[in-house]
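[INFO] parsing input record for Peptidase S54 rhomboid domain-containing protein
[DEBUG] input buffer:
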Amino acid sequence: MSKETGIGGCLSFGTSKKGSFDRRRWTNVLLAINVMLYVAQIASQGKLMLWGAKINSLINRGQWWRLVTSSFLHAHIGHLMVNCYSLNSVGPTVENLRGPRRFFAIYFTSAVASSAVSYWLCQAPAVGASGAIFGLV
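[DEBUG] output buffer:
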C-alpha cells in the first residue's frame, strides 16, 4: 500500500513504492506549476493575471499565448484548490493508463482547445485549469 504525503493537499508524492513519483511525474509538475504561478500572481499584485488571462480583445490583437497561459492562472485560492484537488484525483490514473507523454499531450491539447472554445463562445475574461482537467476525464 502506498502512503502519500503532500504540500497543502495539492502536491502528492508516493513514498513507499519504488518509482511512484515517476508514475505521476507530469501530474506533480502541473500541480507545482499551478501553485507557483498562483504565488507569482499574488506577488505581482494582479499583473500576471493581466498578462496571461484569456481576454478576447487582446487575443484579437495577436496575443495568442493567452490560449495557453490562461489555463495555468486562477481567480482565487478556492479556484486553485478545487483544480489542484481535481487534477490530483484524476491525473495519476490517466498518467498511469496512457503514459506520461500522452497524458501531457492530452492535458495541453485540452487546455488550448477549451480556451479556444471559451474564446469563441464567451466574451468574458477567463482563467483556470478546468478545461484541461475535463479533457483528462
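[INFO] The radius of gyration is 15 Å.
[INFO] shutting down worker
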